[in-house]
């Protein structure tokens, strides 16, 4: 049984390898619990899902399938490893927080290209949203993009 530093038990994670230390809670997430697990097979981010979170509107299986397709398509992201009803697991990736400030045009263009690649993925969504869909403002965004000369 896997017990974390704060005594919660996300699930049986033995398939990730033998732990080389305790699972450590990572601060920062407001809706779900996130842990770092270091094993003899590598380091993993283990997200224990708060199933009462109203922002989580899709089935875990659909999200995981979409993430696997994105990773396979070369989208820069942590590798999705597994999903269960209560847990999502990804390879651990060191990163840094991007400041909340305007970015360069080149950086914005790079992010736009990544978003376009994500939107081009052909992944079947087998379940419908758990909540009613939100309104979409694509026509306004397209107009703004065209007026500023974006591709």
Here the CATH topology equals Phosphorylase Kinase, domain 1
Q: Which regions are unreliable across 5 or more consecutive residues at pLDDT < 50? A: 1-7
Strand order of the largest sheet: 1-2-3-5-4
- CATH homologous superfamily name? Phosphorylase Kinase, domain 1
The biggest beta sheet is recorded as: 5 strands, antiparallel
Strand content: 15-25%
Summarize it.
With 151 residues, this protein is α+β, with helices and mostly antiparallel strands.
Walk me through the structure.
This protein has 151 residues and is α+β, with helices and mostly antiparallel strands. The chain has one domain (14-94, 102-147): Phosphorylase Kinase, domain 1. The protein contains three helices and five strands, in the order E-E-E-H-E-E-H-H. The chain is globular, with a radius of gyration of 18 Å. The protein has a five-stranded antiparallel beta sheet, with helices on one face.
What attributes does this structure have?
single chain, 151 residues, alpha+beta, disordered N terminus, 5-stranded antiparallel β-sheet, 17% strand, Phosphorylase Kinase, domain 1
Write the topology of this structure.
Elements: E1 24-26, E2 33-39, E3 42-48, H1 60-72, E4 80-83, E5 87-91, H2 105-119, H3 138-147
Antiparallel strand pairs: 1-2, 2-3, 3-5, 4-5
């Amino acid at each position: 049984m896997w017990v974390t530093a704060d005594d919660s038990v996300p699930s049986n994670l033995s398939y990730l390898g033998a732990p080389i230390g305790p699972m450590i809670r990572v601060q920062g997430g407001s809706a779900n619990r996130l842990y770092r697990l270091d094993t003899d097979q590598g380091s993993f981010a283990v997200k224990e899902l708060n199933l009462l979170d109203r922002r989580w509107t899709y089935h875990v299986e659909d999200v995981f399938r979409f993430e696997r397709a994105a990773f396979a398509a070369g989208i820069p992201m942590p590798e999705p490893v597994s999903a269960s009803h209560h847990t999502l697991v990804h390879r651990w990736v060191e990163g840094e927080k991007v400041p909340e400030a305007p970015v360069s045009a080149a950086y914005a263009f790079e992010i736009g290209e990544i978003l376009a690649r994500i939107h081009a993925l052909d992944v079947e969504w087998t379940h419908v949203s758990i909540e009613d869909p939100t309104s979409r403002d694509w026509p306004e965004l397209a107009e703004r993009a065209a007026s500023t000369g974006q591709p």
